[in-house]
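note to self: dont lose this again. the chain is below, predicted strucutre after it. 358 aa total, dont forget to put it in the shared folder this time
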Amino acid sequence: MPTMADVARTAGVSVATVSHVLNGTRPVLPHTRQAVLDAIDELGYTPNTLARSLVTSRTRSIGLAVSAISNPYFTEILQGVEASALEHGYSLLIADPHDDPEHERKVVQLLHERRVDGMIVAPSADPRELVSYLRRHDVPAVFLDRVVDDRAEGAQRFDQVCAESAEPMTRLVTHLAGLGHRRIGLVAGRPGLSTTGERITGYRHGLAAAGLPFEERLLVHGDSEQAGGERATQALLSLAAPPTALVTANNAMTIGALRALRERGLTVPDDLALCCFDDFAWADLFSPRLTAIAQPSKELGAEAVRVLLERLAAPDRPARTVRLPCVFVHRSSCGCPDRPARPDTSEGLQRPERGADS
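---
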């Protein structure tokens, strides 16, 4: 790993000058400052802000960069990451990229400068700068929840851990079609996210399996947010021939959809059947209770830590993608008779064995 002395030698300045540029402790001539910055970029040097005096670069810390930490789904993922990290003797540094590509790169750089041993990142819809930074600095990283096509020269570079998305969405659509619905709308997530693309694929497969045509007007993006979910639902309800059933692609958009329905004075499932991707703690408390796909959020977090620690132990092993199965939680918002809230109301979806590579 490049040192401050390496930067000084490359820039043709003293180590003290490099220190002044990095820490802003003394004015440096513009051309000298630029020479130092160019050398830092060329060498891939990052300042050790945690422990410059330590001989080893290992800090037994993991960086976690996930957006929407207030989202219950990501909160549970965080719990899984934290519990597993602590179990293995690692501390956790957390940053929120806000699903913004530029901010994403900045917070990842910040975590890197804190000398975390590796990172777990839920990528934005445009992760090119993220991937470039991680590659350039050879940072051990695991992509979480959202997959990225990071192949270079035919080989995947980074490990990835996510839940199944396409087949569970197909299950929701075919379930609604089996109840007699022929116009099934989808409130999809933010364009560009792998989860959005996979759930749209599952939606279209479900329609095809039920012998229903795909109608572009019945698919509206809610941008993975409550306000977006509300706007998208209002747009669907304003169609000349609105859907009789609706699938929302994450829990935040489900709340937005319910708000839109309430504003219209519509009830679920009498006026509109509703199924949602993402189960959450209070889904069972709604009236009617929400039929949902439950993702293994805590398990995803723990699995990401396990995969990252395996990467740290064997840096040269081939990268892999791990997909965990979801569960179909059958309640009554879809229009089926209500069922007692018991564990046996959850139906597992047939998936590869936990931990299998895809």
